[in-house]
Amino acid sequence: MAQTAQKQLDFDPARAEAFAGRLLATLNNGALCLMVSVGHRTGLFDAMRTLPPATSAEIAAAAKLDERYVREWLGAMVTGAIVEYDPATRRYALPAEHAAFVTRAANADNMAVFAQYIGVLGGVEDDIVHCFRHGGGVPYSRYPRFHEVMAEDSGQSVLSSLETHILPLVPGLTDRLAQGIRMLDVGCGRGRVVNRLAALYPKSRFTGIDLSEEAIAHARESARAQGLVNVEFIAADLSDFDRNAEPEAYDFIATFDAVHDQAKPLNVLKGIRRALKPDGVYLMQDISGTGHVHKDAEHPLGPLLYTVSCMHCMTVSLAQGGEGLGAMWGEEKTREYLARAGFRSVTTNRLAHDLQNNWYTVLK
């Protein structure tokens, strides 16, 4: 009774009101993420970018969509302060300053791409709740659009700066690729990076490995469509990569946000070291969390990254009977795992356009 009375005395109404207001904003912003995702997937933002102020019917016609749905979507956009509306003319406009962050013309700045994760993760909410109650994990097969969204994500964070910022992290790498070396992408997804490199450097040979048969099939089809003959894709579980990786076969190995959601991440890293030539380089892109929740509270994407980790990265690993390391394992643990895998030198790099990742250059 005394403790209850003390809590009542300590209750701060102003703090409670501020928190309630924050939750209201969270509800609105969560809903807006779904609508922003719809606007991206349907091409509505792209259509509005090139239109003068227009009616809902004109916008629907430009995007080749149903007017009634477009009108309701516009309601969310106007009340969410993304689209402007003139009640006198009943016309809607997407300001150029907003279009810069929600259209495909924005290239690396298109934040609508990331809004798609909310809907994708919402699709497995029931599965995640079941795991909270009974343990286990949610398998990759329950995420039918995840690789599609990841491919778009990669297109912005990796492909957009591959030649200008990422490859230069390894001195002399572009010259070696031009002369002809072997490169491996572990956890390649739909293979966009591998296929880009294979097109840029025809004298080099490229291999991509991923657990997902669907992603590998897509990567192979893309390579065929581009007429690439210096690339191969392999669907494989990498849990035993420490034992079955081809020894000293590759001059350059890369992982792009792929290690933390492996069933056995240490085995993957040991396999990468085994597959790397003595003078080879491993380039590792992974989440820039600290591994300490009180420090990650300062990360600009902290809540999003922990949510993605809980509802995808951690759980797909647990579904394989794996470690469930999670996306926010942090630089400290990343370096620990690299050392345990036997690597002798690790340098942390950061790129100005990439808020969520560290880029590690690692020597055998």
Automatic annotation (TrEMBL):
Q: What is this protein called?
A: Transcriptional regulator
Domain named S-adenosylmethionine-dependent methyltransferase Rv2258c-like winged HTH: which ranges? 30-104
Q: Which InterPro entries match?
A: Methyltranfer_dom, SAM-binding_MTase, SAM-dependent_MTases_sf, WH-like_DNA-bd_sf, WH_DNA-bd_sf, WHD_Rv2258c
Q: Which domain of life is it from?
A: Bacteria
This protein's species is Sulfurifustis variabilis
Q: Provide the Methyltransferase domain boundaries.
A: 179-297
